[in-house]
Predict the 3D structure of the following.
Amino acid sequence: MTTHKKQDPRAIRSKRVFKEAVVDILIENPDISKLTVQKIAQRAELNRATFYLHFIDINDLLKQVVYDIFDDLLSKMSPTLQIDNLNNQEQLITFLDYFYKHRKLLAVLFEHPGFIKKMHMTLKDLIVIRRKSEGADSTLSMDILASSILGILMWWLRNGVQFSSEYIANQIVELYR
Amino acid sequence: MTTHKKQDPRAIRSKRVFKEAVVDILIENPDISKLTVQKIAQRAELNRATFYLHFIDINDLLKQVVYDIFDDLLSKMSPTLQIDNLNNQEQLITFLDYFYKHRKLLAVLFEHPGFIKKMHMTLKDLIVIRRKSEGADSTLSMDILASSILGILMWWLRNGVQFSSEYIANQIVELYR
DNA sequence: TGTTTTATTAACACTATGTCAATAAAATAG
DNA sequence: CTATTTTATTGACATAGTGTTAATAAAACA
């Protein structure tokens, strides 16, 4: 429990402010390659040196933003997963609604290599839970299923989420029936 | 015809050498964010200022590398597409073999936003040609099909291409039968 | 209230960017 | 082959960004 003592509220605040700053900047200009520590520190209204006190580099900061998003996503998905008699499509729409709500940030994060890998793992886990519950048998790899859904989600985000969660859910269900 | 006169062989050579340099660097270290004009010019054994004579920035250079790859891919695909009695799976394997052969560079390019969009368009075109020839009817969007295949290809490359073209082709065929 | 922890500041050496003008070199045309 | 045109090279410049350090300030906590 006491292995990592991050007790100081100021340190917690600083990390939060840096994360908020980089998210703000990315939503305004989604070009990750244009990010600099200078700009982030300026937006956070904290000294540039303070940045290096909490993060190794910009990639490290983004990695932590990615982890936060996944904590949030999984905490929102778990109540849905626990309702046994909820059908697949409803579950899928809950998932897609999360995407729709966070579409701007997620579109940027999908350019971050670590994010795609984590999303793949998450999707695979969700598929395994679903398939077990319905006793599906198939020679199809769970990785193939997860990566094809991921491809659809990435396309959805790339195109500015012009389609509704319901449409995407229908297409996915039709694809895998 | 004479709108763009790129007649000088030296200019052509310089562009080629810069492209070769950036590809070499990326295959050694696939982290696009670590690229600098300095390193590329040094590897190309050309002056840094010469770089700016031919490219706006690193992104512009990468974009041109991406275009070259697509020219190559499409020129290799077109003879296969013209053989009418070739079945889908054979055509798919030709496509996947290209991926396998260029897996290292392609894995890097998939981190470049423009590359994913172009690959999506290419896949969609190939699907349209295939579907027309077999008179398939489906309410499934071609975009959904293209993006799901793209997701599988990206997963394949991310995992170091541990599976054969034949295995991936089988999985894709099974997914969409 | 005094001690500990963290943030701030300014400075440093370093790397990288993008541009420019003078010069060199190579290709092409006459 | 020579003269002209085009492109590459070089070194310099101002600017921006990096990563670190040491001294100082400020906030939290005991």
